[in-house]
Design brief:
The complex is a heterotrimer of chains A (268), B (274) and C (310).
Chain A (H helix, E strand, L loop, with lengths): L18 H21 L2 H18 L1 E3 L5 E3 H33 L1 H6 L5 H29 L11 H20 L8 H14 L11 H9 L1 H14 L4 H29 L2
Helix pairs in contact in A: 1-5, 2-3, 3-5, 3-6, 3-7, 3-9, 5-6, 6-9, 6-10, 9-10
Chain B lengths: L11 H26 L1 H22 L13 H21 L2 H7 L6 H4 L5 H29 L11 H21 L7 H15 L12 H9 L1 H14 L5 H30 L2
Chain C lengths: L5 E12 L2 E12 L3 E5 L6 H8 L7 E6 L8 H7 E4 L11 H10 L5 H14 L15 H12 L6 E5 L7 H16 L3 E6 L2 H7 L2 E6 L2 E6 L1 H8 L3 E6 L4 H5 L9 E4 L4 E5 L2 H10 L6 E6 L2 H9 L6
Parallel strand pairs in C: 3-7, 3-8, 5-6, 6-7
Antiparallel strand pairs in C: 1-2, 1-4, 8-9, 10-12, 10-13, 11-12
Helix pairs in contact in C: 3-4, 5-6, 8-11
The chains are: A mainly alpha (268), B mainly alpha (274), C alpha/beta (310).
Chain lengths: 268, 274, 310
């Protein structure tokens, strides 16, 4: 048992028992929070119904990534899946982690066991990804039933959604480590809202002047949306690979940031 | 203890009667102090949020919309609606976790409860302070609409009290619900997901309710957001709405706010006196 | 005691939660300037009684008069005369230390011109002047409690209600709080204290009621209660796990009474040292022994057969 730590990366931060966190999350899920978790699935579906039907009637067809027209619902569906992956990951890694730290004191108890902060972080991220997986699959089923999925490539949207979530989760926890007051959580929403509104989610960014377009293209969500929209109709290009690379880098940087800030986050 | 005796400027009778008459304002002061701590971020939100929404939805999404909606440009159509839903979201923020916090987490309601102030006055103080915040936020939003050319009549200023009424019609029932919660294990998140979200998506904010299939239109009818949105459109660009419907909109909003008020008062009373 | 006016009068006071009679028909009186205690274990009904006095809990039966008024009807006027120090501090963590006092003063309608010097004075009293701008979270338990007491004094109350004033504090912090309370008493403030610490009751209270299960078991001055319900001294003996009861028959005849606790045996005697010699003379050697003065703990044990702290 004592030797266990040696074979691990970052032995001072972890015991290799991240499953403990998953187990707790699962137990809490079964007993109380299942409704909250299940409701997370509603959000993108409702958006799809409302905006697809309501706005669809006002907008008609739009130009898809391959230059061919597509229905408005089919246009926004991949964007909504991407956004919900982002929202889920950010919510879990900021608000939820912060809340558990400050009010629930759940981590304090866990840290009294051999578990280290990294176990907790990995466990939390793992749980967020599991949730993301469930949401992604459920959304794909709805999109398929609505006739919005037309390519086999679309199956890749689920793992890509997970990658999007991973990228945001690491960053989210890193940022949470800098927050001291839950009112500061507003800042998080403050970044997320414009990202959602401007990242080609509900309309193409070509309606804006070029400089705004470049700002949008720096933001992660745009890359996710573009990648997913291409996959949804089987339009895969070198650009898709670029978007993928963006998220791989983001996930790497995010997880590194999280690891570096772990002590600050859990051991203060 | 320093022994300089400070003369009490108020007799005990006048302390009690001051609290009975103006207790609501005394508690509102505390709530305003809370808000003051994050006034900067609130101010930023109040200015930037309408800006973002008007640019993104009014201009961006509007570029996709073919022709006019309800006889006006999409920007003019959607701006008053966004104002109403923004205020509803603000009400969701103020009347949910803050109330739970007052009873369950930092228990901020219990200290004033030991003083001559009464439970209803504590609830009232929260409402007064929030109304102040909402009004300022509404005025900023309205000024933004003017700057975007989304409204151009003096009558459109009525969208401020309409949005405020909507915030209360939605917020006070929510406050009543939160006030009776014995513990919080995610119910408010459920309210957000199962009530606020659907209400704001299916309340004809971005399109006319009539474009929805009939089996989804009822959501708009029960939603304070739809009623307030229609009213705001009437005053902002003269949306044509029959008189009886306008009366219905106002009556529904007032009724919801009153119901929430009565219940919130009752639950505060019960919670702090038992 | 000279005939100071009665400030609190309770008769058949009752509070029921479902089947639980939290306060079960109690009678007591408190006079102006007195320090009056409610001693009993957790759940005895002390805090419930306190909240009824402040009018923040509606009673279910009996009469209660505070300064001649009914708390259920004249709550605001009564609370204008009260200072309340609740068991859970109810400090506002979103406000700073001095702001906690100022805003609390505002709830009494006190103007800022009065509150500015008053808050400074109270911070001095609580020895927190240098913490005026600190966040409440940064204060230690003892500092928080001193701040709460200072907060309760913002309206110059005639009666100060203290619910478990030193629970959770370390011994040094307790003595600072007690010192504060003595000073208030000297200034003529009526103190009403609930506690489950017998030493606190002995230190602070001139007169007290012993409560258990919502009822009053005894009433009087601490020394008088000890004299009435106990012997002057107690001999405590430990024989190790399970052996205390075994040895009881051999101790027969020593002292007036005995109590068998989980970990020790108490012998109630006039002279503890003499009793201990008698134990040795009978050839019994305990693991440890202790002679001490009788306390209110012994009174409670005698009255209920249970300890105050469980």
């Amino acid at each position: 048992m004592i030797e266990m730590g040696r074979s691990l990366l970052f032995p001072s931060l972890r015991s290799g028992n991240a499953t403990g966190v998953l187990l707790r999350a699962w137990t809490a899920f079964k007993s109380t929070s299942w409704a909250t978790v299940a409701s997370g699935f509603m959000e993108p579906v409702l958006y799809l119904l409302a905006m697809g039907m309501g706005m669809g009637a006002l907008v008609g067809d739009v130009v898809g990534p391959d230059g061919n027209p597509m229905s408005y619902a089919a246009y926004i569906a991949p964007a909504l899946l991407t956004t919900s992956a982002m929202n889920g990951a950010v919510y879990e890694s900021t608000w939820n982690v912060f809340f558990k730290l400050r009010f629930g004191k759940i981590y304090q108890v866990m840290l009294q066991t051999p578990m280290g902060p990294m176990d907790i972080a990995l466990g939390e991220v793992g749980w967020a990804l599991l949730r993301g997986l469930a949401y992604g699959v459920a959304f794909m089923v709805v999109a398929f039933v609505m006739g919005l999925v037309t390519s086999l490539w679309a199956l890749l949207m689920v793992p890509v959604a997970l990658l999007v979530a991973l990228g945001f989760a690491g960053f989210g926890m890193g940022i949470t480590s800098y927050l001291t007051n839950f009112r500061q959580m507003d800042v998080v929403g403050f970044v997320m809202l414009p990202m959602f509104l401007f990242s080609a989610t509900l309309y193409p960014i070509t309606v804006y002047p070029e400089w705004i377009q470049w700002v949008v293209k720096v933001m992660p969500l745009w890359h996710g949306v573009e990648l997913m929209r291409g996959l949804s109709i089987g339009y895969v290009t070198w650009g898709s690979l670029g978007h993928l690379a963006y998220f791989l880098v983001m996930a790497g940087v995010g997880l590194t940031l999280m690891t570096l800030r772990l002590r600050k986050l859990f051991l203060r | 203890m320093s022994d300089l005796p400070l003369t009490r400027p108020l007799t005990r009778e006048s302390m009690a009667s001051a609290a009975i008459r103006r207790g609501v304002l005394f508690y509102a002061e505390t709530w305003i102090r809370y808000i003051r701590v994050y006034a900067l971020s609130l101010g930023l939100v109040a200015v930037v949020q309408p800006l973002l929404y008007l640019v993104a939805m009014g201009v961006g999404l509007g570029a996709l919309v073919r022709g006019d909606v309800a006889g006006v440009s999409y920007l003019r159509f959607v701006a008053p609606a966004i104002m109403v839903s923004t205020m509803t979201a603000a009400a969701m923020g103020e009347f949910s976790y803050n109330i739970t916090g007052g009873f369950l987490w930092n228990k901020g309601f219990f200290a004033p409860n030991q003083t001559p102030i009464q439970p209803r006055q504590i609830a009232g103080g929260v409402i007064v302070a929030c109304c102040l915040r909402f009004t300022i936020q509404c005025l900023i939003f309205w000024a933004m609409m003017v700057a975007f050319g989304a409204v151009d009549s003096a009558l459109s200023l009525l969208s401020v009290p309409i949005s405020l009424l909507c915030a209360l019609a939605f917020g006070l029932p929510l406050m009543a619900y939160t006030a009776q919660m014995k513990r919080e294990h995610g119910q408010l998140n459920l309210v957000q997901r199962f009530i606020v979200m659907p209400l704001s998506l299916f309340s004809g904010t971005y399109f006319l309710l009539e474009t929805m299939p009939g089996y989804l239109q009822w959501i708009g009818w029960v939603s304070p957001i739809w009623h307030a949105t229609q009213l705001a459109r009437v005053v902002c660009f003269g949306l044509v709405e029959p008189g009886w419907l306008i009366v219905t909109h106002v009556a529904y909003l007032v009724a919801l706010a009153l119901l929430g008020w009565v219940l919130a008062m009752r639950f505060f009373e019960r919670r702090l006196r038992d | 005691m000279t005939a100071s006016p009665t400030v609190i009068h309770a008769a058949d006071l009752m509070k029921v939660y479902g089947k639980l009679r939290a306060v079960d028909g109690i009678n007591f009186e408190v006079r102006e300037g007195e320090s009056f205690g409610l001693l009993g274990p957790n759940g005895a009904g002390k805090s419930t009684t306190m909240r009824m006095i402040g009018g923040t809990l509606i009673r279910d039966g009996g009469t209660l008069e505070v300064l001649g008024l009914d708390p259920d009807k004249d709550g605001p006027l009564i609370r204008a005369n009260l200072g309340v120090v609740p068991q859970q501090d109810y400090l506002d963590e979103e406000l700073r230390v001095a702001e906690n006092l100022t805003m609390y003063g505002r709830y009494f309608g006190l103007p800022y011109s009065y509150l500015r010097p008053k808050v400074a004075e109270l911070l001095e009293f609580a020895k927190l002047t240098d913490r005026a701008k600190a966040n409440v979270e940064e204060l230690s338990g003892g500092m928080k409690r001193r701040l709460v007491i200072a907060r309760g004094l913002i309206n110059d109350p005639r009666i100060l209600l203290l619910d478990e004033p030193t629970t959770g504090l370390d011994p040094q912090a307790r003595h600072i709080v007690w010192d504060q309370l003595y000073r208030l008493k000297e200034r003529g403030v009526t103190l009403i204290v609930t506690t489950h610490f017998m030493d606190e009751a002995e230190q602070l209270c001139e007169r007290l009621i012993v409560m258990d299960n919502g009822q009053i078991k005894a009433e009087g001055r601490p020394m008088a209660l000890i004299r009435e319900y106990s012997t002057p001294e107690v001999l405590e003996l430990r024989f190790g796990v399970g052996r205390n009861e075994e040895l009881l028959p051999q101790l027969e005849g020593i002292g007036e009474r005995h109590e068998l606790l989980a970990d020790r045996l108490l012998l109630y005697v006039r002279d503890g040292d003499a009793a201990l010699s008698e134990v040795a003379r009978r050839g019994i050697t305990p693991l440890t022994s202790l002679v001490r003065r009788s306390s209110l703990e012994d009174v409670f044990l005698r009255l209920t057969g249970r300890s105050l702290i469980e």
